[in-house]
Design goal:
The protein is mainly α and 278 residues long. The chain is built from ten helices and no strands. Helix 4 packs antiparallel against helix 5, helix 6 runs antiparallel to helix 9 and helix 6 runs parallel beside helix 10. It is globular and about 55 Å long.
């Protein structure tokens, strides 16, 4: 019998050990996809524009802010850089991380009945909401940049790859922040009431409405502690090239994202243990 057991091919053994992981991944992807569709229907309805509101909503806000800035500052914002470029690279980032974290807040309560299903987990609820906001924000960014370049308000970016890298780092930051805020709001009832006003107070130092080079030295050093500033600086560096000096540090942003996501996943795991299906 010992000799018979040793005759199992190595390739078959590898397949047997890999199949459960691949199957679990496939199940989780299908679960998140179903939760995404449910979230879209719940939030926007089955008819009319439906899913289009996912990216139309951030587009409308960003366009409104861009037009307002152009009217007030007459195409410049304290420098020779077009205000459209500042508004697009700034407000698009704010809409992404702010919307994702806001919608993850208390995401469990309206979906708690779904946790009766063995394959649906708390982390899936957060993933589905963050992915929905990422999809909407990314589509909005691409469409608006294309439109403003078409009408001549924006030129072609100098380094598209750097802008893509900056956006991917923003997505990573958004994922960690969304899970963190969602988990904290379930553990502490008062956290949601603090988080919403905090996002408004944080906006002036988030990097959306200024560039670090415009600030005094002490203020510049202070704002560089915030990861969102590095994202906007990197986006603007990719768009403007060397026209304006930027101060992004991708290494700092990567380390911050790693720590934030690790903390968020640990909190989500602990939160899942506390939640009971109703």
């Amino acid at each position: 019998m010992r000799g018979f057991e040793n005759t199992v091919p190595e390739t078959q053994t590898n397949t047997l050990t890999q199949t459960p992981l691949l199957k679990a991944l496939g199940i989780q992807i299908r679960v998140i996809g179903a939760l995404l569709m449910r979230e879209v229907i719940t939030r926007y309805g089955r008819y009319n524009f439906g899913f289009m509101w996912v990216f139309l909503a951030p587009m409308i806000f960003t366009v409104g802010v861009t037009l307002l800035w152009n009217l007030i500052h007459k195409a410049t914002h304290g420098s020779e850089i077009p205000v459209t470029a500042i508004a697009m690279t700034g407000y698009s980032t704010v809409m992404l991380w702010r919307n994702a974290s806001t919608h993850c807040s208390h995401a469990i309560e309206p979906n708690q009945a779904l946790l009766y299903h063995h394959n649906v987990r708390v982390i899936d609820l957060y993933f589905s909401r963050v992915i929905l906001e990422i999809a909407g924000g990314t589509i909005s960014m691409i469409v608006l940049f294309s439109f403003f370049m078409f009408i001549g308000w924006l030129k072609m970016p100098v380094d598209i790859l750097k802008m893509i890298l900056a956006w991917l780092l923003l997505i990573w930051l958004t994922l960690g922040l969304g899970i963190f805020v969602g988990s904290m709001s379930e553990r502490l009832e008062w956290f949601e009431h603090i988080w919403h006003p905090f996002t408004y107070f944080f906006f002036p130092v988030s990097g959306a409405a200024f560039m670090v080079d415009w600030l005094p030295e002490k203020a510049a050093r202070a704002v560089l502690w915030f990861p969102t500033v590095h994202v906007t600086e990197m986006l603007r560096h990719g768009y403007l090239g060397e026209v304006q000096r930027t101060y992004e540090d991708p290494g700092y942003l990567i380390v911050f994202n790693m720590v934030l996501l690790l903390m968020a996943l640990m909190l989500a795991r602990e939160t899942a243990r506390r939640v009971e299906p109703q």
